[in-house]
Each structure stands twice: as structure tokens, then as C-alpha cells.
């Protein structure tokens, strides 16, 4: 008879999981066998998502920018699950305030930094302290943005806050790595979910944006969730301090959108023609110029 002990149930807290990407991450994690703490400042939203998940998901109401509120939520999760520290944390909650920098309201600027950067720090540190006290390895994933990789117009503190979260994540990896804690960031691109959904209700904007992506489409919340699950999982056991850009290639494609002389654009035409000529069932074509 096998003496192997059953694998311990793994636990995970996802912030901002009452909607959008966080809810998709919570769903994917529950489907992969994690017991999930669905944390959101909106108690009803957290409850609705938690109730839709299997495996005893726990709804946690908390404001991530308020240290006491976060500690109370972590205490509650520990009581519900009987584990001192979760095995994983996804710092996903974030906000944006649009408007040109010249007119940006200082209170709005501060609010974005407070939630996106300080809230991520508060939550990640509180969980890391518990992991370390329990002598338990863990994985933390932060959610940044393509706007933290390259600036977007009229998004105030959003991009700068996300760039800072990327560096904060590396700092976590550096300082907490010796305790067995991995820290990585996910940088979503053009995703048709959550805070971006209203943008894509405009069909013309949507079509123009899709055509700028090398993969020629928007991403889904489920695709962001799959990448997040990879970073949380043991498959990424030696991955720490990295930022995984999940954007269909759009962030790196800026040079492709610049105007080019025809002499440069025609380079490679011979190869394209030869390739299509050898494609099965497709006659070779030569492009008129
Ligand atoms: N949707 C996108 O296209 C996209 C692209 C790049 C990055 N992101 C990032 O992904 C994350 C999730 O975005 P989303 O589109 O799902 O947003 P969303 O607005 O749909 O959901 C965010 C959730 O976070 C919660 N929240 C906000 N402030 C909070 C706080 N102080 N404490 C606790 N919960 C709080 C909200 O109640 C909400 O349920 C954000 O960090 C965002 O910056 C989103």
C-alpha cells in the first residue's frame, strides 16, 4: 500500500478578483485546484465570484491601500483555511484615472499610486511576512501593464505606477528570494476585459487596435490568467524577478508602425513570393509594385 501523503491543498489570494482579469485568474486557479481567497474592496462582487467557484473559495472584503484592512482579510483567510500563510498571491487590483498630465488632479494622481503601487506593496509584504514566519515557500505575481513598459498618452499616474510595480516586484524577488519566495510580474496588453471593455465597445477603435497587434486580435482575460497560473505554478519554479508581457507582440512592434521607404519595404519580397509558390495548393504570385 502506498504511504504517500496526500498533497496539501494549495491556497491563493487574488486581489481585485471581483471583476475583470482578477475574476478570470480566480476562476482559472480554482479550476487548477487552488483554494482561492477572492479579495476585493467591493464585498458583493467578491462574494459573487467566490460563490461561483468550487473548492471552498473565500470572499474577502478589503481595500489594498489600507494596511489594517488587508491584515484583517489575511487573518480571515487564515481562519477559513487553517493555514498561516497562503502559498500564492496575485496583486491584481488596480485603478486608472485618464486625463492629460498638464491638467491631472493631484488627488487623482495620488489615488492611482496609492492603490497600484502602495497597495501592491502593502499586500505583498503582509503575505511575505506570513510566508516567512511559517517557513513556507511561495509565489507572488503582480499585474503591471504594457503602459508600464511604454508610456500611453493621457493616462496620468497609471503607467508610472505600473513601471514602479515592475521594479518593486524585482526588489521582492531580490530580498525575499532567500526565503524561497518567487516574485514575478504579468504585463497585459490590449485585453478585452475589465477596465478596457468600454474602449472596445467602440468598433472602429477596436478594429484599429486589432490591426496594430502582430497577432491581429485583442487578448482575453483567460489568456492573462493562463500566464499568471504558469508563474504561480511549480512549472515556473526557477523563474523569479521577471516581467512576462502578455500582449500578442504589440508593445515591441513600434518600429513596424513607422513609415519606411519602398526600398526597405521591398526587401524580402523574393522570399515571400518563393514561399507562397511552394505552399501546397497555392500558386506562386508576384506582387506588382
Ligand atoms: N483590462 C485590461 O485591459 C488591462 C490591461 C493591462 C493591465 N491591466 C491591469 O489588470 C488589473 C485588473 O484590471 P481589470 O481590467 O480587471 O480592472 P477592473 O476595474 O475590471 O477590476 C479591478 C477590480 O479591483 C478592485 N479594486 C480596485 N481598487 C481596489 C482596492 N483599493 N482594494 C481592493 N480592490 C480594489 C475593483 O473593485 C475591481 O473589482 C489592474 O491592475 C489593471 O491595471 C488591465
UniProtKB/TrEMBL annotation:
Keyword Oxidoreductase applies: yes
Chain segments annotated as coiled-coil in the UniProt record: none
Start and end residues of each stretch annotated as Disordered: 261-289
Domain Ketoreductase stretches: 10-189
Keyword Lipid biosynthesis belongs to the record: no
Keywords: Oxidoreductase
InterPro entries in alphabetical order: KR_dom, NAD(P)-bd_dom_sf, SDR_fam
Pfam families: adh_short_C2 (PF13561)
MF annotations from Gene Ontology: oxidoreductase activity
Family: Belongs to the short-chain dehydrogenases/reductases (SDR) family.
Name by which UniProt lists this protein: Unannotated protein
Taxonomic source organism: freshwater metagenome
Amino acid at each position: 500500500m502506498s504511504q504517500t501523503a496526500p498533497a496539501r491543498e494549495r491556497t491563493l489570494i487574488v486581489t481585485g478578483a471581483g471583476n475583470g482579469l482578477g475574476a478570470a485568474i480566480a476562476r482559472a486557479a480554482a479550476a487548477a485546484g487552488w483554494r482561492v481567497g477572492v479579495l476585493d474592496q467591493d464585498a458583493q462582487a467578491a462574494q459573487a465570484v467566490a460563490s461561483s467557484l468550487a473548492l471552498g473559495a473565500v470572499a474577502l472584503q478589503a481595500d489594498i491601500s489600507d494596511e489594517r484592512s488587508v491584515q484583517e482579510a489575511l487573518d480571515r483567510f487564515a481562519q477559513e483555511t487553517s493555514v498561516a500563510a497562503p502559498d500564492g498571491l496575485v496583486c491584481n487590483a488596480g485603478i486608472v484615472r485618464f486625463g492629460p498630465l498638464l491638467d491631472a488632479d493631484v488627488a487623482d494622481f495620488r489615488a492611482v499610486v496609492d492603490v497600484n503601487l502602495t497597495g501592491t506593496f502593502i499586500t505583498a509584504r503582509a503575505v511575505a511576512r506570513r510566508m516567512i514566519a511559517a517557513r513556507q515557500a511561495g509565489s507572488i505575481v503582480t499585474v503591471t501593464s504594457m503602459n508600464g513598459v511604454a508610456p500611453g498618452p493621457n493616462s496620468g499616474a497609471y503607467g508610472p505606477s505600473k513601471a514602479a510595480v515592475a521594479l518593486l516586484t524585482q526588489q521582492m524577488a531580490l530580498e525575499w528570494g532567500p526565503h524561497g519566495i518567487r516574485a514575478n510580474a504579468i504585463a497585459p496588453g490590449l485585453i478585452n476585459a475589465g477596465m478596457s471593455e468600454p474602449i472596445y465597445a467602440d468598433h472602429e477603435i477596436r478594429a484599429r487596435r486589432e490591426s496594430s497587434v502582430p497577432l491581429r486580435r485583442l487578448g482575453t482575460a483567460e489568456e492573462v490568467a493562463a500566464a499568471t497560473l504558469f508563474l504561480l505554478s511549480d512549472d515556473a519554479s526557477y523563474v523569479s524577478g521577471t516581467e512576462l508581457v502578455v500582449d500578442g507582440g504589440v508593445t515591441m512592434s513600434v518600429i513596424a508602425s513607422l513609415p519606411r521607404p519602398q526600398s526597405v519595404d521591398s526587401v524580402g519580397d523574393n522570399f515571400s513570393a518563393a514561399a507562397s509558390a511552394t505552399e501546397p495548393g497555392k500558386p506562386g504570385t508576384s506582387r506588382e509594385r
